[in-house]
Amino acid sequence: MQLSDPSALQERQQDGEYLLPAYEDWCFSRIPGTVADLLGADVGPRLPEAATDKYDDISRVVVFLVDGFGLAQWDGERERIPFLRDFERAGAVQPLTTIFPSETAAAMNTFHSATLPAEHGVVGWNVYEPDADEMFEALPFLRKDGTEPERIDIEDVANADPIYPELEAAGVETHHVTPFPSESTVPHTYDAEDLSTFSDAFDEAAAEASDPSYIFAYLPQTDATAHAEGVDSEAYRKITAETFDRVAAAIDTLAEETDDHGETLVCLTADHGLIDTDPERNVDLSAPPFDLVSDLKALSDGTPIRFSGSARNAHLHLRPDRIDDVYDTLTAELDAKVLRKQEVLDADLFGSNPSSVFERRLGDLVVVHRDLSVWYGDEARDKLDYIGMHGGLHPDEMLIPFATATLDSLAD
Predict the structure, then answer these.
(1) What are the two backbone dihedrals, phi and then psi, of residue 379, each rounded to the nearest 5 degrees?
(2) What CATH class is the domain 7-122+158-276+395-411?
(3) What is a single molecular function from GO for this protein (predicted)?
(4) Most distant pair of Cα atoms in the chain: their distance
């Protein structure tokens, strides 16, 4: 089956040059509920029936999540990577939008809890938690100086519970193949810096999983390479080819395990796509004409709140008397959406039914540039030198694939 035409979804969700999340139906946030439903469990909203109605009696679901490999990346690499074309012929590729923000910390909390950012409260890679008087990176739960936050526990980073106890209660065994340990499932860890170690970890998961089972495999290498080198680079093309070589080998391993299993559904997806920004033009809000740092609120020790959101989803926690002036300057100087807090809430940009955790972490202004990075403070130059980026509302960030095929069809 050929790649489904994304134009209808894109046209429906288009907002000028930006693309809004399709929370009500064709959204990344509904993948966990869909996987659970296929295995006889109910953990949250699922994709429309058309996404999986051709699949019956599924006893094992395997999801490969390739970080940053959006629909634009799939389309750009499919002629060069035979595996992608073979997968299309064997199954289907359904376009979805991801959530907002289109970035890993928020998306993976959504993926593991089946809740939207407006509920779980992870507003981006960086989080400012007023109740704890802390700024920290949601992943890997560290302050910028490398120390662990002292006034908030890691369990309180997200205002949501993982879906895996519910799956276990429904009799579904879950295995995670990731570069970091998982406490909610059976973990199979590998070294993110050495992609060859993925194969042994996945083979272990495939051998140990008993039906009904869910195997989740996370591969972040493409995203990391794109940050440094850009999507349009030889380094990105090399790591993408290696990644899908490992995925293809993992599918071969699954096929070898079929004697002990019923029907297996294989899914390929991504948490977000990517765009290449221009480090020569990326915007430093610490510099003129913005000089923004002096306008920021501060922690109790006087440290300005520099870190909230990300460079494509910048949350500005401002002194009350400076909000209007900063808004006027940003809207005059930037090719960007600059949204006041109430506008974000009214638009349900992060999802509906916002929690109190989300509302207090949400910036007074949220800045989403059309195609550049916007950052400020101590790490501005590091972030603004990145090429491949995500977190915003560009269609290439927001559209992702949800590719599905049965193991039998892939073996034919």
Answers:
(1) -105, 20
(2) alpha beta
(3) hydrolase activity
(4) 68
DSSP 50-114: GGTTT--SEEEEEEEEETT--HHHHHHHTTT-HHHHHHHHHSEEEEEE--SSBSHHHHHHHHHHT
Helix (H, G, I), strand (E, B) or coil at 373: coil
The fold adopted by the segment(s) 283-386 is Gyrase A; domain 2 (3.30.1360)
Range list of β-strands (E), 116-255? 126-129, 134-137, 173-178, 186-189, 213-219
> 259: Cβ–Cβ under 8 A, 6 or more apart, which residues?
none
Strands 374-375 and 283-284: parallel
What is the distance, to the nearest Å, from the Cα of residue 322 to the centroid of all Cα atoms in its chain? 32
Structure tokens at 220: 């972040």
| pTM score of the predicted model | 0.96
pLDDT digits (tens, 9 = 90+) for 25-60: 999 999 999 999 999 999 999 999 999 999 999 999
- Categorise residue 309: left if φ over 0, alpha if ψ from -120 to 50, beta otherwise: left
Compute CA 205 distance to the chain's CA centroid, rounded to the nearest angstrom.
23
Q: Which residues, including other chains, have CB under 8 Å from residue 167's CB and lie 6 or more apart?
A: 36, 39, 41, 43, 174, 214
Rounded (5°) CA angle 330-334-335: 140
Distance CA 183, CA 188 (A): 11
Are residues 158 and 109 in contact, defined by beta-carbon separation less than 8 angstroms? yes
Domain ranges of the chain: 7-122+158-276+395-411, 283-386
* Nearest residue to 332 via CA among 374, 279, 371, 290: 290
For residues 1 and 406, the answer to whether their CB atoms sit within 8 Å is: no
Using CA atoms, how far apart are residues 312 and 306, in angstroms rounded to an integer?
14
